[in-house]
Amino acid sequence: MAAVDDLSFDPWDPAFVSDPYPAYAELRERGRVIYFEPTRQWLVPRHADVSALLRDRRLGRTYQHRFTHEDFGRTEPPPEQEPFHTLNDHGMLDLEPPDHTRIRRLVSKAFTPRTVERLKPYVRRLAGELVDRLVREGGGDLLHDVAEPLPVAVIAEMLGIPEADRAPLRPWSADICGMYELNPSEQTAAKAVRASVEFSDYLRELIAERRKEPGEDLMSGLIAAHDEGDRLTEQELISTAVLLLNAGHEATVNATVNGWWTLFRHPEQLAALRADHSLVPSAVEELMRYDTPLQLFERWVLDDIEIDGTVVPRGAEIAMLFGSANHDPAVFAEPDRLDLARADNPHISFSAGIHYCIGAPLARIELAASMTALLERAPTLSLAAEPRRKPAFVIRGLEGLSVTV
Prior knowledge:
Blueprint: E1 2-3, H1 14-18, H2 21-30, E2 34-36, E3 41-44, H3 47-53, E4 59-60, H4 82-89, H5 99-110, H6 113-118, H7 120-136, E5 139-141, H8 142-147, H9 149-159, H10 169-177, H11 186-212, H12 218-224, E6 226-227, E7 230-231, H13 234-264, H14 267-275, H15 280-290, E8 296-301, E9 305-307, E10 310-312, E11 317-321, H16 322-325, H17 360-377, E12 382-383, E13 402-404
Parallel strand pairs: 1-2, 3-11
Antiparallel strand pairs: 2-3, 4-8, 5-13, 6-7, 8-11, 9-10, 12-13
């Protein structure tokens, strides 16, 4: 068993969060599975292992479909955190079959490829309007002015959340997502609980309205979705809506600003992209690989599993390092080189297996739309000031990205 005492893996160190990739290279050299005492997790840094484990049914996002907390050697969450866990534990991201299968099947009936494809003109128009406003102002904060409002507006529009009600959505989401960081503080938990209560109360009212007067929106579709008598419960509806909003914009926001910060640091690649906009689809994939928005994804070990001669026991937690896997030289030629034309790019930024991101097609549309709008309407876009990283490691992004046009 390898340990990390003498390595530079430190998810609470701002220098590490700023550039974790050298530490990942050390981890991959050290072995296929490494125990990390501060979080009591087994780190998995290599692409082949991460890809396989995401599909391995001996691991789960939850264990409560098979074990009690006591059986699994875990303590129950504090009672004051109950609103967060009720919200989180009824979303399909944190469920396993058969509940996950049932909910994903019902959500898929409303969240169809055709539904997503129909959004393309709206996404492109909105991206263009946001960039035009940025150009009129002579620049601004790319995160606040373009990266955030685009995906938040799109998923809110899909769900049928009125424009006047959208202001709290991003703060609620940010507070809830704080709980996905490693060893969250009591203050982080308290903010997540408050956001969970407020967001749930709002959605409960919206669901009641849509039951009385259904529309063409996704929330109405989720309420109506049924399969062999199955329907989503009210809590499942609320948890699904929150998951779609949180997952539907957190990664896209960070992918946008991380991506442009990367482009500004690679002027030759940015020049190639400006000269050839047909590179946009492959550029989106490469930027998500090069600086991965979601760095780590956790699984519980439901049955003992052996990795490279090390038995990881039932009850343990595995942390799959997406950012490391996306820089594995066994899979990617010159992984630390940005190549916007990279053709063979099996990155795992959208996960894999039964928990593959249901919103991946929508995220790709949004990322391509904002990139295209910025290339076409702000061709001289440039960095105005060095950005600051958020302290968070798991969901990794910037505090802002100041630009001029």
